[in-house]
Amino acid sequence: MANISAVISGIECSVPDYILTNQELEKMVDTTDEWITTRTGIKERRIQKGEGLGTSDMAADAVQKLLKKTGTAPEEVDLLICATVTPDMQFPATANIICDKVGIKNAFSFDMNAACSGFLYGLATAEKYILSGMYKKVIVVGADKMSSIADYTDRTTCIIFGDAAGAVLIEPNSNGYGIQDSILRSDGSGRIHLHQKAGGSVKPASHETVDAREHYIYQEGQAVFKFAVKNMADISVEIMEKNGLTSNDIAWLVPHQANLRIIEATARRMGIDKDQVMINIYRYGNTTNGTIPLCLWEWEKKLKKGDNIVLAAFGGGFTWGSIYLKWAYDSN
Ligand code: UT7
């Protein structure tokens, strides 16, 4: 078999219409636009409104648009991976539900939970299926309805998060484009700083867990911040060194959008200018698994075939990682 690599051959996203601004948050919790902007870089985020709608609805919308854009029939898809921490329900997998909603019938599908690093884990996993030679069309969706687990009485966490979904099509390529390398890590001891206390097998849902507000995100912001700054920068530098890349070789850094200060620290450590960093945290906040595809989608028209791109993420678990890829197409 000829040498093949796995490329992103198309990208689409879905963001809800409703815009939750810092000004509106000022009326909900004791905060200010000034505090949120200077501490996080966020000005507004999108919120999915509507009874009975969940993560799979945003994801299905993104996948449907992706199939259309890439001229792919649903029956051609071999595998769909959904990276999410806000599945529609505990089971079945949201990936199964997405496939049902868009008519993907000849595929298998599963969810991946690696918190904010889930999209990178999904991408690296999809790559391995492509490299096996057995799968030709794999979709990776990063989707989260973070508003479903954000506590809008907790000013330290609710201001950060937003809702979105992004989907990419991964296909084989024989010209050397696509994913060149990936480094993924996890350290479960970090769970004490960032988790959801109840609703799992250790502490199933009960009146008490609801009363204690234990179904929301629990985050010790400062502790997570320190690990995020160090690990996201370290792993991005590691992938550069491992592949002999200097900052001049890199066209774009695509960082997880958790906090503008974490993004800037990572770019500084890599020696990358701010205008080579994709940043849209101002408008979307932290959409967990949606951040990286949302950036690639917004910058798609500026990307050129052969551009060296480094993706980097850090999140709950802890999990973190970086992927080095060569962009495979010019948009027109
Ligand atoms: O997505 C992947 C994982 N997550 C992350 O990477 C997030 C990492 N952490 C962060 O981004 C930041 O830690 C936060 C944005 C969550 C918080 O920013 P911080 O600069 O670390 O603030 P802090 O928690 O240290 O709080 C500083 C002060 C406190 O007041 P005192 O004790 O100094 O009087 C907080 O009570 O700011 C106060 N504060 C606020 N004030 C106004 C906390 N949240 C707010 C708020 N508005 N929304």
Write the layout of secondary structure elements.
Blueprint lengths: L4 E10 L3 E4 H7 L4 H8 L3 E4 L7 H16 L8 E5 L10 H9 L5 E5 L5 H14 L6 E8 L17 E11 L4 E9 L7 E3 L10 H5 L5 E3 L1 H22 L9 E4 L4 H11 L10 H4 L6 H9 L8 E8 L3 E8 L6
Helix pairs in contact: 3-4, 7-8
The structure holds oxa(dethia)-CoA.
Oxa(dethia)-CoA (UT7) binds next to helix 2, helix 7 and strand 12.
Overall CATH class of the largest domain = Alpha Beta
Main sheet attributes: strand count, strand direction, barrel closure: 5 strands, mixed
Which percent range fits the helix content?
Answer: 25-40%
Mean pLDDT figure = 97
First-last Cα distance: 32 Å
CATH superfamily heading of the largest domain: Thiolase/Chalcone synthase
* CATH level 3 topology of the largest domain: Peroxisomal Thiolase, Chain A, domain 1
How are the strands ordered across the major sheet? 1-7-6-4-5
**Would you list the SSEs in sequence order as H and E?**
EEHHEHEHEHEEEEHEHEHHHEE
- Return residue spans where pLDDT drops below 50 for at least 5 consecutive residues: none
Number of helices: 10
Radius of gyration: 19 Å
Instruction: Assess the beta-strand content as a share of residues.
Output: 15-25%
What is the strand tally? Answer: 13
Shape field: globular
What structural category characterises the helix and strand content? alpha/beta
Question: Could you state the oligomeric state of the chains shown?
Answer: single chain
CATH architecture of the largest domain: 3-Layer(aba) Sandwich
The tally of structural domains comes to 2
Bound molecules: oxa(dethia)-CoA
